[in-house]
């Protein structure tokens, strides 16, 4: 702790900050542009000027940039000094000289940091009479709108895009007052994190293009705290709704999870909520969608009751993209012995191993924040950028962490961005990336190796042997692999916070086991080792922790006639298992009930379809990859017959005459039964924070105090305003009534503070700048491993699947845009997704790049264009995972190349 | 006592004065041009819709009776897809007019909008949009704004220089 004096008054603050951080942390309003808590200071905009005095007798003082001046003990400053005030006013006037007269048509307006700072400094009228400089804009693809005229040259965009996110196609171009922030020519931004420019840029240069297509101002959006549903990391989000349509996703700060950022899949994948493929009514179907008949809810429930008449013959298939509560309700409906997890075979095995490892311990699951703090990391078999994007962004920060650790020798403070990065250039961070094909993280890694999954397992065990040959036997590897293993082992041994990353990407549980062995060994040696598990979907871990049988046993039960009715929850089985097996089951089952929000190949074959709510219309819990239970709240009330998955299941239970379900009218009661039944979920019971302020009905408003059109938005239908819909499940109301000045951390529906309309107002919600939210970060970790010394290491499994002649080992290639089911309903994401292809290394290619090849995979013949991928390991072939047009790969599998192909008619 | 007498005297005196009451609707009162009555949406001097759907009038409205949705034509010009005022809620305060950065929304000296059915007091854009510029004949927001629209490229607004050529190294 040090003492600084602001306007002569003493304040105690944490050491190692700069003056700007200190002032903002203490609640002072000091304007700034180029500083960002995640990017540090560069002193480019000159907006944060304050007066610093030598001692209490100094009356003249000197102007300094607060963001570039350390808040040392005894520093005396004045924010309100007339000279400093005048200086800041001149700076903003100068920044605004070329600013267009755009606010009314600018999407940033109403949440613009430049507007806020201009008002804060009191610059009201334009004095300059010179013509304004103008720029031409670029087309930056489906995610980002570009309006260069509005730029104030703060350089935040390129610092984020290049230095922080590792992108290369956005740059500061041209010179002097012509400086231009864009690509060298129009074209989609290549970085997976480009959407963050919307929040990083303090002006309206980069704005959200998906929002533009249905533009709404920040104050008009109905918002609620939510959790991203597009991968397993559980980034915190704030979705916004207007006129019954989801309009955008914004970051919701969580210190230990996503920090200030989101990936583009999470930010732009939301449009499935508005999709025309939504199921909106109960449907009775006989064979195909064409013959579907709309039903009333009561009719549907009657039909369901008849279908569920023989409880012994009903099985349920859960879903990793459904809330924990929905899966639990399904499990309760069919009984634990007839509940199937609804995961692909390889995911079932990998996640089983992963859960087991996390629960057994003794090494904890890494938080995303912990990933950035690692000083050595070994990624084993996972294409992190595509399967867990924000983890890749955080792995890229290892470089920063590393240089922060060495800067103490150079006397450079941690927030001094240019200095820290300069030092960071000296050496690459100890990041080792071992994957089955070239990935986007390779440029950041110290060493990169591409090998088939079973060879990666061998590499993992070779590293183990290099760590300690007395514990782990040496597998059979070549010299190069051996040398690499030694190097990795040395780096991991040297590290204080080594990190091991593995996941379900290759579908090989032995990779996860090898990584866990390393983490355990290192943890036992005394380092703060952590283990990061990448899981594919938003509730993969929650579903697997719930137990349940695998999908094949569901197929068997139907096939053997032990069951004849199947209830499928928010799941497209054709994405989980071989199409033939799914076909066979759906053919044989007498009754198929599907509860889902999207029309899928599975829902098409159902006899009864019930319309489920998406994450935006229902409240529930998701468990992320580190086992953190997080609650996402409905942003808008479900329309018409749409109900939360768990609510449909509760109604089905009631219709089928199950006792116990009647108390589940509220989420609270369901959760209580869930934790009673499965103690592993105990922390879920206390997830809802209680609002501290007394508000109407004890609920906080989902609408801002500036929400408009209340008495007109529905007036075309009925001039009398409808009553706001009630919400029994959340401490939030679909209304603008109530005080939300400082909500508890888990209930932050929007960030706003007087004078701070942009997301920069977040400073007012944090307990320290860049630190946890006031009142502690939301969500609770389910699994904290027991400190035990009894470690049973996994042995290296025997797994040789050598492909035969003309055969290649199939490797799934993941794509941030394309491999995930729901986000593909967003037009922008679909535009960025690749077309189906077959990837081979050039040496193995039977035809040229882009030409058609015919291949045989799991008994199916396909014709796909060939993509030459230098770096693919020998005798492996890659197919894009989950992409429409590519059949589900049941791993392990081989591909047989039949030769040059032609499109079959 | 004194006050009662004075009151009676005043009443007597008023009985001989000219009445303020007029025979509405046969007779119409004089209304100043700035009288705040029925709201209209005006057009710019080029005859295009002035409203750029910025939502500021809606935000200023104390009774929240303005609802609209922004959209764009193919060239980037923004305008409201729908624009609704619920006059059964409107208190004719004029805040919307004050907030409007484009002078699109204006209050007029017309107040004769009684309806038997309250539903008929809901005015849509077709009911609000007039064919002229209203009280302000000259202002054209898009001529001053930096946004390019059909017929006005970058650098062609008032007081703008040619777009920068980023490829030149000359100062
Ligand atoms: S960037 Fe901000 S100040 Fe500039 S036009 Fe947009 S809203 Fe207005
Ligand atoms: S584009 Fe935005 S972030 Fe980049 S320099 Fe300009 S104002 Fe700053
Ligand atoms: S990293 Fe995953 S959880 Fe985070 S925003 Fe992207 S898709 Fe969503
Ligand atoms: S303030 Fe003016 S320009 Fe903006 S939406 Fe209202 S009428 Fe249109
Ligand atoms: S914030 Fe300090 S100079 Fe820009």
Question: Would you mind describing this structure in some detail?
Answer:
The complex is a heterodimer of chains A (905) and B (171). By secondary structure, chain A is α/β, with parallel strands linked by helices. Among the domains of chain A are: 2-95, Ubiquitin-like (UB roll) (Roll); 348-541, Dimethylsulfoxide Reductase, domain 2 (3-Layer(aba) Sandwich), CATH 3.40.228; 807-900, Barwin-like endoglucanases. Chain A contains 25 helices and 37 strands. In chain A, the strands form nine sheets. In chain A, strands 16-15-26-25-24-17-18 form a seven-stranded mixed beta sheet, sandwiched between helices. A six-stranded mixed beta sheet of chain A has the order 33-35-34-37-32-36, with no helix packed on it. In chain A, strands 2-1-5-3-4 form a five-stranded mixed beta sheet, with helices on both faces. Chain A starts with a strand and ends in a 5-residue tail after the last strand. The mean pLDDT of chain A is 91. Chain B has a domain at 29-144: Alpha-Beta Plaits, CATH 3.30.70. Chain B contains five helices and six strands. The longest helix of chain B is centred in the N-terminal third of the chain and has 13 residues, at 2-14. The model of chain B has no long low-confidence stretch (mean pLDDT 93). Chains A and B meet through strand 6 of A and helix 2, strand 2, strand 3 and strand 6 of B. Bound molecules: iron/sulfur cluster (4 copies) and FE2/S2 (inorganic) cluster. One iron/sulfur cluster (SF4) binds next to helix 2 of chain B.
């Amino acid at each position: 702790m040090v003492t600084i004096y602001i306007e002569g008054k003493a304040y105690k603050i944490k050491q190692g900050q700069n003056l700007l951080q200190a002032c903002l942390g203490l609640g002072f309003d000091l304007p700034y542009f180029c500083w960002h808590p995640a990017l540090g200071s560069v002193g480019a905009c000159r907006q944060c000027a304050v007066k610093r005095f030598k001692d209490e007798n100094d009356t003249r003082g000197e102007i300094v940039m607060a963001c570039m001046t350390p808040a040392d003990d005894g520093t005396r400053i004045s924010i309100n000094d007339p000279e400093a005030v005048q200086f800041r006013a001149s700076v903003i006037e100068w920044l605004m000289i070329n600013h267009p007269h755009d606010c009314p048509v600018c999407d940033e307006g109403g949440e613009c940091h430049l507007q806020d700072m201009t008002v804060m400094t009191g610059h009201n009228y334009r004095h300059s009479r010179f013509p304004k400089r103008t720029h031409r804009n670029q087309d930056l693809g489906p995610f980002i709108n570009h309006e260069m005229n509005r730029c104030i040259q703060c350089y935040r965009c390129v610092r984020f895009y290049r230095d922080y996110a590792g992108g290369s196609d956005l740059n500061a171009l041209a010179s002097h007052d012509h400086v231009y922030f864009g690509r060298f020519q129009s074209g989609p931004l290549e970085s997976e994190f480009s959407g963050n420019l919307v929040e990083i840029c303090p002006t309206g240069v980069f704005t959200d293009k998906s929002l533009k297509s249905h533009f709404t101002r920040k104050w008009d959006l109905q918002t609620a705290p939510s959790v991203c549903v597009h991968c397993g990391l559980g980034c915190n989000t704030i979705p916004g709704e207007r006129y019954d349509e989801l309009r955008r996703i914004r970051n919701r700060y969580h210190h230990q999870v996503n920090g200030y950022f989101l990936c583009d899949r999470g930010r732009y994948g939301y449009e499935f909520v508005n999709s025309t493929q939504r199921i909106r009514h109960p449907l009775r179907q006989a064979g195909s969608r064409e013959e579907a008949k709309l039903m009333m809810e009561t009719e549907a429930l009657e039909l369901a009751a008849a279908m569920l008449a023989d409880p012994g013959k009903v099985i349920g298939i859960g879903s990793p993209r459904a809330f924990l509560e929905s899966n639990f309700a399904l499990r309760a409906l069919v009984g634990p012995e007839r509940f199937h997890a609804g995961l692909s075979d390889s995911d079932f095995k990998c996640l089983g191993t992963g859960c087991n490892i996390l629960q057994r311990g003794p090494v904890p699951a890494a938080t995303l924040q912990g990933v950035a703090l690692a000083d050595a990391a070994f990624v084993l078999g996972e294409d992190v950028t595509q399967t867990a994007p924000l983890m890749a962004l955080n792995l890229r920060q290892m470089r920063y962490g590393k240089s922060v650790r060495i800067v103490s020798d150079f006397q450079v403070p941690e927030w001094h961005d240019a200095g820290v990065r300069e030092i960071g250039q000296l050496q690459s961070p100890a990041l080792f990336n071992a994957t089955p094909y070239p990935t986007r993280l390779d440029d950041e890694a110290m060493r990169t190796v591409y090998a088939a999954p079973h060879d990666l397992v061998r590499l993992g065990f070779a590293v183990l042997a290099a760590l300690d040959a007395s514990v782990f036997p040496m597998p059979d590897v070549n010299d190069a692999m051996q040398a690499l293993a030694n190097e990795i082992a040395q780096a991991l041994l040297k590290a204080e916070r080594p990190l091991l990353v593995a996941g379900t990407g290759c579908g090989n549980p032995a990779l996860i086991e090898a990584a866990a062995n390393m983490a355990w060994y290192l943890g036992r040696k005394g380092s703060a080792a952590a283990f990061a598990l990448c899981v594919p979907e938003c509730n993969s871990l929650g579903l697997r922790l719930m137990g349940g049988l695998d999908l094949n046993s569901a197929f068997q039960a139907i096939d053997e006639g032990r069951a004849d009715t199947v209830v499928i929850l928010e799941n497209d089985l054709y994405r989980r298992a071989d199409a033939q097996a799914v076909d066979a089951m759906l053919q044989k089952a007498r009754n198929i009930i599907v509860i889902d929000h999207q029309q899928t190949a599975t829902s098409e074959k159902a006899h009864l379809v019930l319309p489920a709510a998406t994450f935006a219309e229902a409240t529930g819990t998701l468990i992320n990859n580190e086992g953190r239970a997080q609650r996402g709240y409905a942003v808008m009330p479900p329309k018409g017959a749409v109900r939360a998955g768990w609510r449909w299941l509760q109604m089905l239970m009631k219709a089928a005459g199950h006792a116990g379900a009647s108390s589940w009218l509220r989420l609270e009661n369901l959760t209580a039964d869930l934790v009673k039944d499965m103690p592993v979920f105990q922390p879920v019971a206390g997830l809802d924070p209680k609002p501290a302020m007394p508000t109407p009905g004890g609920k906080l408003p989902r609408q801002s105090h500036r929400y408009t059109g209340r008495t007109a938005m529905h007036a075309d239908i009925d001039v009398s305003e409808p009553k706001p819909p009630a919400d029994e499940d959340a401490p939030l109301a679909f209304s603008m009534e109530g005080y939300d000045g400082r909500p508890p951390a888990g209930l932050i529906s929007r960030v706003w503070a007087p004078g701070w309309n942009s997301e920069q107002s977040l400073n007012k919600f944090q307990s320290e700048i860049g630190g946890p939210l006031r009142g502690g970060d939301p969500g609770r970790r389910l699994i904290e491993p027991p400190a035990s010394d009894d470690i049973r290491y996994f042995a290296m499994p025997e797994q040789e699947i050598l492909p035969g002649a003309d055969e290649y080992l199939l490797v799934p290639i993941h794509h941030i845009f394309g491999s995930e089911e729901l986000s593909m309903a967003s037009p922008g994401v679909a535009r960025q997704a690749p077309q189906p292809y077959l990837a081979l290394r050039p040496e193995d290619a039977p035809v040229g790049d882009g030409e058609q090849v015919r291949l045989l995979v799991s008994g199916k013949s396909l014709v796909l264009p060939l993509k030459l991928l230098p770096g693919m390991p020998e005798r492996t072939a890659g197919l894009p995972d989950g992409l429409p047009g590519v059949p589900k790969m049941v791993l392990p599998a081989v591909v047989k190349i039949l030769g040059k192909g032609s499109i079959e008619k | 006592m004194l006050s009662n007498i004075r009151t009676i005297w005043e009443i007597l005196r008023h009985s001989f004065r000219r009445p303020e009451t007029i025979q509405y609707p046969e007779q119409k009162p004089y209304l100043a041009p700035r009288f705040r009555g029925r709201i209209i949406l005006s057009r710019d001097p080029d005859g295009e819709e002035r409203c750029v759907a910025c939502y500021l009038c809606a935000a200023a409205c104390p009774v929240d009776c303005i609802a609209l949705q922004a959209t764009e034509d193919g060239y980037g010009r923004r305008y409201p897809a729908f624009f609704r005022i619920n006059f059964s809620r409107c208190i004719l305060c004029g805040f919307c007019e004050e907030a409007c950065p484009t002078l699109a929304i204006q209050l007029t000296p017309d107040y004769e909008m009684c309806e038997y059915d309250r539903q008929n007091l809901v005015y849509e854009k077709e009911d609000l949009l007039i064919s002229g510029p209203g009280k302000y004949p000259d202002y054209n927001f898009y001529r001053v704004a930096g946004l390019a629209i059909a017929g006005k490229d970058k650098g062609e607004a008032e007081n703008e220089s040619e777009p920068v050529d980023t490829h030149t190294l000359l100062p």
